[in-house]
Amino acid sequence: MQSATEGNLGNQLGFPSLFPASASFWCFGKGCEIFPAIRYLRDFYKSQTRFSYKNSSMKQAIKVFKFGGSSLKDAAAVRNVANILRNYNKEKLAIVVSAMGKTTNALETVVEAHAARNGEAFSILNDIKAQHYRIIDELFGREDEVYASVNDTFVEVEWVLEEEPHENYDYMYDQIVSAGELASSKIVAAFLNKVGLKTQWLDARDIILTDNIFREGWVQWEETLERSAKIARPMLEKEGFILTQGFIGSTSENFTTTLGREGSDYTAAIFSYCLDADDMTIWKDVPGVLTADPRLFENVVKLGRLSYREAIEMTYYGAKVIHPKTIKPLQNKSIPLFVKSFIEPTGEGTVISDEVEDNYPPMVAVETNQCLLSISTLDFSFVAEHHISYIFNLIAGLRIQVNMMQNSAISFSLIINDIDDKADRLAELLKDKFKVMMDRGLELITVRHYQQDVLDNLRRGKIVLLEEKIKDKTVQMAVKDVPVMRRKLVPGKP
């Protein structure tokens, strides 16, 4: 028999502070295997004490906040964010910020101009720089060191523009568009420090590792967890906040990647998961999660509570309030998500958790700029499994999100986001084996928990090109606007 080894009970259980140093036990075997009963007790504590342990005096709770572009659109908005954060000055808080205002959209036009070689890229970039410098002037003054730091960020973009357009458009996109989050985070972190809210700036690319697919990087979770434990968690143990960028990550070769459009919510969820946060809050310009977009519909209502499952379904079908990838990392660790208004920060908002019954009113999501691809074989044979497999291999390679699909014996129809040139690239790759028809400028309307009168109202003035009812009271419709036909009034006739 191998010799016995004595060990401290608390250390062996993984909760050293729960047991006195004198509490010991004996274990036998290589590496000091724990008795089955003790192993069971350890696992029980780990599964049952997450909430009480994290919220006890033994460990201060960790919160993660995300502020989007509309909450940082100008100097007044940055001051408002600082005022919100004053209420959390004693918290262990990780803050994720997006690019300011519509900066991402503007930087996308820089990429397009550079790719087109139309001579407008530097002019557009100068407008973006001027916007940020105006905010710096109002918050600090041009002599502040943050000016040089932000200027360095834009100089890196200029280096890209001085070269010929890269053959990989998505790579070039990520190197340019990521500047928006970097500049925004530098300004906000500097201002928080200026007003007495101690803040450490953290480069998200040092934490979030992705694969080598640009514009839609997939997180490498094991390495990201290790980096977070090594870098982010020790920073949180110091006094003050940490502040980082949404949307961006890096490859193992240190090339900047992005996580998909509007990916800052997802970044906050990644940090929440890696830091084992107690909760996460997204600060929006709406009072919480609404049953529809108030810019498009009347009589929308706020939902006070929402289940993870319902939130996943809503975001998958196009609800804009939360990025689709955000919920799952939170659900996996039962981390509540709060959606609150930065305009009325004391409002209740919406809480998304697993402690909610699924009983909801009709909810509507609308995706614009949709493209319908109708695919059929060149010889009019049936569309079989090997055809569909081939099509989806191409879709996966292009990282295209399929929002709706439907197949018949001789055709296969897809609804995808018509952004950039991905629809055209897919059609080009398909044309050797298939006949492809494209219908653009569509809307995809999804109604969860539908009622017939809601569907009838949504169909008015529309041609429905594709429709599908799903068993859980969900309807999807790909529609195109059509003028309502009216009888002409002929003079002299009633």
Descriptive notes:
The strands form 5 sheets. An 8-stranded mixed β-sheet has the order 5-6-4-3-9-13-14-12, sandwiched between helices. The protein folds into 3 domains: 44 residues, no CATH class; 223 residues, Acetylglutamate kinase-like (Carbamate kinase, 3-Layer(aba) Sandwich); 119 residues, VC0802-like (2-Layer Sandwich), CATH 3.30.2130. The N terminus is likely disordered. By secondary structure, the chain is an alpha/beta fold. Strand 7 and strand 8 form a beta hairpin. The longest helix has 19 residues. It is globular.
Which descriptors apply to this entry?
disordered N terminus; alpha/beta; globular; Carbamate kinase; 20 strands; 3 domains; 494 residues; VC0802-like
